[in-house]
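pasting for the record
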Amino acid sequence: MLVDDSAIVRGFMRRWIDEDPRVELVKACSDGVQAVNDAAKVRPDVIVLDIEMPNMDGLTALPQLRKAAPEARIVMASTLTAAGAAQTVKALALGAADFIAKPQASAMGSVDSYRSDLLDKIVALGERAGARLQLAPSPPIKLRPRQLHTSPPAALVIAASTGGPTALPAFLAPIARRIDAPILIVQHMPAAFTPVFAEKLEASIGKHCREAREGDILANGTVFLAPGDKHMRIARCPAGRMIHLDQGEPVNYCRPAADPLFESAAAAYGSRLLCVVLTGMGHDGRAGAGKIVEAGGRVIVQDEATSVVWGMPGSVAQAGHAEAVKPLKELSQLALRMMSGEAA
């Protein structure tokens, strides 16, 4: 289901969907009122919901759509502005599964990228939306044997994508204040969104959280979020370890990406590192997780049942890098035990 007040936008999206055999359009609506009225009838697997609309905007429609079509995954279509970022982060907290940033009029060359991203999100979320779809069984997972660790990890690195804005606070809120080591997070998100998300995350977990800055020393007690459009890496320095940011080429089509953080963290911390991979599309983090286990570090991932999309954690698990695959709540407690040295 498409919900957008612009007939031009609906026309573009309708054509894109009609050209993609993986997707079927069941309804196109011009505002939230029409969408809420029709959602229960057409039973969509995915709803692409514009935020700014007359009559009923996306934020108002969101909880009503979740009630009318509880199996549907909702993708918020947002502008790349401070106001759009704040509204989108709020929508994610209210239960939206993902978001997509609309291309700006001054950068219409990005329309092809927007089309590809939109269709990929619809397909990935649709495959997980409801029991009506017959999912292929996941390949068997071979867990990595647990190694004896005499010292607890000195840092925690986390990666997430689709579903991450909800999973990250749920994962960190019960444990963040009990972890002294620095926590570094890559969440796939545009530059306009990450400052807002860092503020929301800090409020949710009760621990200082901010966007990372070039040259930040990795002192205990802080949660660092990779800024949008920049890779975050860890480098050794006379004071210990510091953050380096760069705008190198996207990795796995992402910037920030998990692999640069994971690979640099493996080099900086060796065996004293815990890596957590949460819900997300694609396979970002798989190569970096391999580097972490090669260096003697530990990797744990979220399970399929509690992930919005089991792309990133699934790819790490299927590569044999994970020593545990757990539901989100259990994963959180396991991470705490590992960071405290209780799960050596």
